[in-house]
């Protein structure tokens, strides 16, 4: 069972529900929507993960191992297992192109498919889109705060498993990061790879100077030296010594990295030492426990920092490690449907989103209306899959998504971009949708 | 490139450092240790992930796709790429058996291998062990708070990717959960699968009663009905109606699930309705935003709850989404080594852990000493791999790990188990280690 392809990466209840749906011929077209509920820590979200979601849908089949597990479990009928042996996803997908900025209650994905197909895919589809959206949304905040300073993803080691580490490279790059330290992220998605050295490298040598010089001569094109293994001041001084020897062989020290202590103070001290040593072109990179909040402080007071590496705080979206994502049935058998319990009222019907801009190109507000009467050309949700096959609209490149994201981030109203207590972006319901909402009062 | 096997699931700097190590023949034996620094939110950790770590080490090779990526990157010499084509892990691994309770600064894993081998594996090994340990440690807190109430893992959809979702099933089961909703977790690790139904199932039917009855007749052995799609009181009343019809065909309603609102109040109301309706044996499960803190409140006031499902808060370890894990070089070329910068002083040398119990079998404290002079029979770190091959000691079953964890959790001093501001468990350094620490003052 291939982790990245198996349909068993789902919740058991998807399968038990399906058995009943098939048993009762409940295979008419259903519409499910994936959306996020409001988050007090995020003024906006960035849609990500669609490419992996569509790839999974296109290849979704039950192999022998999966069917055998179903048999052994004793939970399913033979007839149902046989049905699943022939399972394919045959539906339509409408979605926000990756990199699109969106808001609470707006569908980022809409599945139109026979009820059992649309139901089965819930768990994994959410698993894919939720995580990448979570990280792209976090990374976008770092990108906005960092201004022109390059930000790099360093966090794979503490990401939650390998898929998360790899997807985080992708989501961060989409949000505008410059590079990733994760080789697989680079290999799979064509993201520039980057890296310096670990403290262990310095410790494995008998002196810091020897470690620096060996590394530099072995990687003459990309010399970035880690200077805080023992003492940052001495580390910076050693860089100057070594740089003079390396200069004789035309090897430039491109950068140094500081990973501990007061990063701003260390960067200032290091800048002075490097400048006095004639290394005005050597860049200073910092890392260690950074996120958008600490970046804001660090960069606000003008510390001489030329690049930042972020890790665990971003890869785990530490201040908000999950979003209140939902995948809900909103239309079935010709009827809008929605859950109304306990104050969480979902919006029924098949929806479309329209966005409004002011004269300066800044986003003013969105309207949530119904797909049936919407203008497809201007609606944000695009049809990216039909009959279980991707359409060209579902084939956007990562570079396009990155560009889209940058453009939209800069069109966001200031207050909505705020790191703390962001303003609520205006999302209004169309008159039709309002009416539908009052009509579909809870069944009693 | 298979996500679960590829050596490119690593940081670029591991490869650039390796190129220098090989170029300079720095292939002598090194000792790296993986440990956690102190966490104010966790009084103890539970070791997990070793099985996946060892499996990865045993199968670690560079395939054609990996070598091709290295070539295309332009970052490596031909000689180095050729070396990596023949790469195998040939080292020894000493580790805490999975399910072992451990504390800050104690190595949960010790790698003894030629320097480049021990270095390369850093990123992925930490990625594997850090996440499972993070989740087992979180889940153990839920297990302790829940007492005898079964706890179930429901969180795959919002876990960070598929590997995290599947590993969380395993880590939670190790920590004492009863079952998992994730089919792949069940299929891979033999964990009991469990599930009820989604709100969509109820919404897809024209009445709640019809949804309940269809589901029950289709899954007569495991009828658990979700009663909060519209209104919990009406949902419970419908369960009673339906149960009477089902009883005529000897189909019992095993349980109901409540997923929203005031769970304690809803459980009390539901219990009354079920009891009055003659359904005293029907269990009440609750879910929705639960973690150890909310479980404590929920169960403390005696709400009639027979089982709980936990999801995102546990699968993402939301109050502490990553641990301050470190993988550090502690011995190389006959010399203990450690990083001393900025107040974070690592403990040098090859370490072993001994644990002390009082007469009642409660844990009193640990001693961290040096492996060279330690009693191997009683030390907590066991040799689980030698020459890159697993030893029988590295082949423990998940059931054993689960039992080990339960035993140790109940031997933990009360204060150390506390959910908030846990007491610090006494970990003392042996005289030898203290001496070594003073000897290895920072190189200046």
Automatic annotation (TrEMBL), chains A, B:
Residues 152-267 form the Nicotinate/nicotinamide phosphoribosyltransferase domain. Keywords: Glycosyltransferase, Ligase, Phosphoprotein, Pyridine nucleotide biosynthesis, Transferase. It is an enzyme of class 6 (ligase). InterPro entries: Aldolase_TIM, N/Namide_PRibTrfase, NAPRTase_C, NAPRTase_N, Nic_PRibTrfase-Fam, Nic_PRibTrfase_pncB, Nicotinate_pribotase-like_C. SUPFAM superfamilies: Nicotinate/Quinolinate PRTase C-terminal domain-like, Nicotinate/Quinolinate PRTase N-terminal domain-like. GO terms for cellular component: cytosol. It catalyses: 5-phospho-alpha-D-ribose 1-diphosphate + nicotinate + ATP + H2O = nicotinate beta-D-ribonucleotide + ADP + phosphate + diphosphate. Transmembrane segments: none annotated. Residues 8-129 form the Nicotinate phosphoribosyltransferase N-terminal domain. The keyword Phosphoprotein applies. Pathway: Cofactor biosynthesis; NAD(+) biosynthesis; nicotinate D-ribonucleotide from nicotinate: step 1/1. NCBIfam families: NAPRTase_put, PRK09243.1-3, PRK12484.1. This is Nicotinate phosphoribosyltransferase.
């Amino acid at each position: 069972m291939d982790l990245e392809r198996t349909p068993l990466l789902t919740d058991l209840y998807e399968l038990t529900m399906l058995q009943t749906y098939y048993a009762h011929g409940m295979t008419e077209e259903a519409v499910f929507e994936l959306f996020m509920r409001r988050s007090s820590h995020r003024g906006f979200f960035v849609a990500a993960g669609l490419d992996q979601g569509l790839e999974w849908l296109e290849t979704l089949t039950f192999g022998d191992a999966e069917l055998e597990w179903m048999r052994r479990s004793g939970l399913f009928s033979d007839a149902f297992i046989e049905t699943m042996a022939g399972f394919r996803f045959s539906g339509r997908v409408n979605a926000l192109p990756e990199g699109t900025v969106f808001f609470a209650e707006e569908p980022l994905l809409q599945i139109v498919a026979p009820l059992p197909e649309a139901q089965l895919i819930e768990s994994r589809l959410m698993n894919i889109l939720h995580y990448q959206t979570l990280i792209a949304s976090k990374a976008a905040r770092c990108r906005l705060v960092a201004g022109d300073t390059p930000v790099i993803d360093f966090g794979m080691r503490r990401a939650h498993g390998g898929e998360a580490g790899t997807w985080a490279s992708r989501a961060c790059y989409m949000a505008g990061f410059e590079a990733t330290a994760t080789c697989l992220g680079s290999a799979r998605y064509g993201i520039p790879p980057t890296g310096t050295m670990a403290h262990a490298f310095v410790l494995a040598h008998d002196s810091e100077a020897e470690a620096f010089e060996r590394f530099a001569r072995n990687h003459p094109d990309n010399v970035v030296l880690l200077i805080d293994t023992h003492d940052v001041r001495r580390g910076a001084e050693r860089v100057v010594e070594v740089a003079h020897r390396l200069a004789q062989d035309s090897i430039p020290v491109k950068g140094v990295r500081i990973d501990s202590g007061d990063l701003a103070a260390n960067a200032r001290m290091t800048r002075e030492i490097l400048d006095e040593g004639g290394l005005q072109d050597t860049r200073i990179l910092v890392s260690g426990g950074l996120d958008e909040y600490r970046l804001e402080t660090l960069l606000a007071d003008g510390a001489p920092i030329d690049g930042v590496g972020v890790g665990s705080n971003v890869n785990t979206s530490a201040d908000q490690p999950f979003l209140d994502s939902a995948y809900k049935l909103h239309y079935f058998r010709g009827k809008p449907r929605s859950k109304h319990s306990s104050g969480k009222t979902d919006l029924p019907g098949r929806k479309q989103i329209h966005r409004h801009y002011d004269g300066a190109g800044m986003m003013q507000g969105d309207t949530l209306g119904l797909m049936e009467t919407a203008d497809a050309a201007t609606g944000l949700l695009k049809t990216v899959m039909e009959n279980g096959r991707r359409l060209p609209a579902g084939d956007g490149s990562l570079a396009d998504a990155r560009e889209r994201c940058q453009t939209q981030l800069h069109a966001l109203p200031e207050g909505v971009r705020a790191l703390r207590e962001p303003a609520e972006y205006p999302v209004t319901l169309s008159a039709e949708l309002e009416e539908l909402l009052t009509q579909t009062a809870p069944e009693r």
